Amino acid sequence: MIKVEEEVVETLKQTFTEYVVEAKVQREKRVTVVVKRERLVEIARFLRDNLQFDHIASVSGVDYPEKNEFMVVYHVWSIPKKVLVALKTSVPRDNPHLSSLISVWEGVNYFERETWEMFGIIFDGHPNLSRFLLPEDWDRGFPFRKDFKLRTKPE
Amino acid sequence: MSIMRVRWGPQHPVSGQWAFWLDVDGDIVVNMEPDIGYTHRGIEKVAENRTYIQNVPVVERTSVFDAGNIVFGYVQAVEELMGIEIPERAKYIRTIVGEMSRIVSHLYGLGLLAIAVGFETMLMWFINDRELFLDLFEMLTGARITYSFFIPGGVLHDLPQGFYDEAMRRLDYFERRLKDYWKMFFLNRTFITRTRGVGVLKREDAIRLGVVGPNLRASGVEADVRKDEPYAAYDQIDFIIPTEKEGDAYARGGVRFHELEQSVSIIRQALKKIPDGKIRVKVPITPTPPKGEAYSRVETARGEIGYYIISDGSNRPYRVKISAPSFRNLLAMPFLSRNVPMADIPTIYLSLDLIPLDVDR
Fold first, then answer.
1. Contact residues on chain A for B208, CB-CB shorter than 8 A
2. DSSP string, B37-104
3. Which CATH class is domain A3-124?
4. Domain total of chain B
5. Domain at B215, CATH number
6. In this structure, is residue B16 part of a structural domain?
7. Global model pTM greater than 0.90
8. CA-closest candidate to residue A91, choices A128, A52, A119, A58
9. Alpha-carbon distance B118 to B128, whole Å?
10. Could you tell me if residue B233 is inside a domain?
């Protein structure tokens, strides 16, 4: 049952040896791959073209202030294979630049725009990184970062 | 002719709590941009500041139209983090609530689609029949819309006395009504003319844009989490995934209609097959799952919802990402709104069954 997942992990490890930091089968139908951000676009394109990961499920930013980095996680589902891959990469917190994956999966468009707005991660090559969910005159920074504290009472 | 920019909403009757920027050339829309965020509540951030149990009603507000299935994904992710296996009876009760929630949501969505083509009578009928299931929710959970019925470990209450008979009676009635609806609404010439060939989403475009749920299935892709990755009791129940090939507004409405029939059959089977036993396992009032992460997928009425939860070992989640179905379907809206008459915009929007609550979170 777990064969398809292991095949994905092995193929990725063999093709992108030094750029795959970690690849493992998390459980049935779940694969986690941590890659270096320099080759993110190539690995994503390989996942789409050679391993049939065609349906984007989610893009999440995660803030790790103590490690001084953001993690960006692309979850991609494969309709033929019925497997979900979590493609993770980290970007430094003080220079948060990452190549946009919009050329690979067009469905990341609004997800990346939201992640830019909430975390301040700049996706190079994205056509329209502009205000989306927050008010147009928002000036209180990036709300999903860990150093943004919720106000429990109105001031 | 010069191109004019029109703002549609957020006060427009069929816009909901969001707005579209339409670039129109006479009556033809050449470009459309959604302007969302009017109901943004920052649920993902709020969830980082509450305990796992407190978060159940919080994430439910992602989309109150389909409260059952929305919470479903969240509790499953928490259970995966904690390594809990829930009792069989709880799985069946969850399946029943999830399907009733789907019926309630589809009736609302189809009613709005009827409004888009100027068929207000249908909305009244659908809303009236929605009451059948809202009453069942009240009987089972004590609330009609936001019942927060699922908790990590199981469900809150067992099926009450008389629930089986009452549910069967209402399902029989509802099934008769569905036959009328097909004749009245889906075979109606006005509805067919206004929706056939409108907003055609091809199979490859649907996959490329990451569209989910009935909208994806109406484009000929047989993808449904209930079959692809069966959760709760769906692997023990016999049902089919309705699909259509056309990918237009009529097909999207049709898929939803046939899902109603399937849901009726699923609830009947689940009520007949439900085993005896416990309805939940003991979970501490403030659970502290071990370090790790889980991605749980559930098929809601509008499509697949994904919860990505990271635990750092404390009693609050480190990160909760909600990949909501309407947010994923939203990308199809500007794609389908190019070179169409302005009068088709409500039909396209409501046939995609987008709701602003879900988009904004």
1. 54, 105-107
2. -TT---HHHHHHTS-TTTHHHHHHTT-GGGHHHHHHHHHHHHHHHHT----HHHHHHHHHHHHHHHHH
3. alpha beta
4. 1
5. 1.10.645.10
6. no
7. no
8. A119
9. 18
10. yes
Q: Taking each helix axis as running N to C, give the angle between helix B163-181 and helix B120-141, from 0 to 180 degrees, rounded to the nearest 10.
A: 170
Report CB contact under 8 Å: A82, B229: yes
* B196 three-state secondary structure: coil
Question: What ipTM was estimated for this complex?
Answer: 0.89
Q: Is residue B25 part of a domain?
A: no
For residue B283, the enclosing domain spans 42-332
- CA dist B314 and B305 (Å) reads 25
Nearest to A75 among B209, B308, B319 (CB): B308
Q: How far apart are CA B319 and CA B341, in angstroms?
A: 42
- How far apart CA B130 and CA B274 sit, in angstroms, is 24
Q: Which residues of A touch B (CB under 8 A)?
A: 29-30, 54-58, 60, 62-63, 73, 75, 79, 82, 84, 86, 105-111, 114, 132-135, 143-144, 148, 150
Structure confidence by residue, pLDDT tens digits, B75-127 = 999 999 888 889 999 999 999 999 999 999 999 888 888 888 888 888 889 98
Q: So what's the pLDDT on residue B1?
A: 64
Backbone angles phi, psi at A84, to 5 degrees: -110, 130
Structure tokens at B227: 């079959």
Chain A residue with minimum CA distance to B357: A133
Return the domain boundaries, chain A: 3-124
